Amino acid sequence: MTSTPLNVLFLCTHNSARSIIAESILNRLGNGRFKGYSAGSQPSGRVHPYALDLVRQLNYDTTSLRSKSWEEFAAPDAPRLDFVFTVCDNAANEVCPVWPGQPVSAHWGVPDPSAAEGTESERRFAFADTHRMLYQRISVFTSLPLASLDGLSLQQRLDEIGRHRTSSAEPAK
Predict the structure, then answer these.
(1) Which CATH architecture has domain 6-163?
(2) Cα dist from 136 to 104, 149, 162, whole Å
(3) 10 forms bridges with which residues in the sheet?
(4) Edge to edge, what strands does the sheet with 83-86 contain?
């Protein structure tokens, strides 16, 4: 493994919750080995307030979090991407830009917490549950022995991470 961090882009349609949370998690768990980014195919232009509250409460660095278009990462001056993960089903079904360098990609879909209904506590719980699911997947990803995996084995492992359905706990009533 080189001393240069591997760049990982998390994609979601609006880049307001799931991909933002994933970016935050990877930048902490990556320990300098990975650099996380996030973007959307149709960015909302704002980070969902519950997502921002959650990452702040968990003491993640929020200084660079913003909703942005995936086109920023297809530009000539964009960071070279090593991995691209879609975290919502809509983004997985869209035609992505051509990423320079042909990064390894996989789909790690999780439910949209911003679509949760109910009380404020129940809606906030949906964001916490999204964090939990993404944290588990990203933790497994950052633990992979990347230097010893060939391309096919790596792709299979990444696909397995995305297929693993983490059970959702029910909010306390």
Answers:
(1) 3-Layer(aba) Sandwich (3.40)
(2) 20, 20, 11
(3) 38, 85
(4) 34-40, 6-12, 83-86, 104-107
Our measurement of the distance from residue 123's CA atom to the centroid of its chain's CA atoms, rounded to an integer in Å, reads 20
Q: How far apart are CA 62 and CA 58, in angstroms?
A: 10
- Residues whose CB is less than 8 angstroms from the CB of residue 144 and which lie 6 or more positions away in sequence, other chains included: 154, 157
Mean pLDDT of 126-147: 96
For residue 77 the two structure tokens come to 């001056």
- Domain chopping of the chain, boundaries: 6-163
The tens digit of pLDDT for each residue in 138-173 reads 999 999 999 999 999 999 999 999 987 655 554 444
Q: How far apart are CA 126 and CA 50, in angstroms?
A: 10
pLDDT of residue 172: 43
Q: CA angle at residue 84 from 4 to 94, to 5 degrees? A: 160
Cβ proximity of 129 and 112 under 8 Å = no
102 has a pLDDT exceeding 50: yes
How many helices and strands (H and E) does the chain possess? 5, 4
In contact, 33 and 60? CB cutoff 8 Å: no
Residue 136 parent element (H or E): helix 120-143
Instruction: Return the half-sphere exposure (C-beta side, CA atoms, 13 A cut-off) of residue 92.
Output: 13
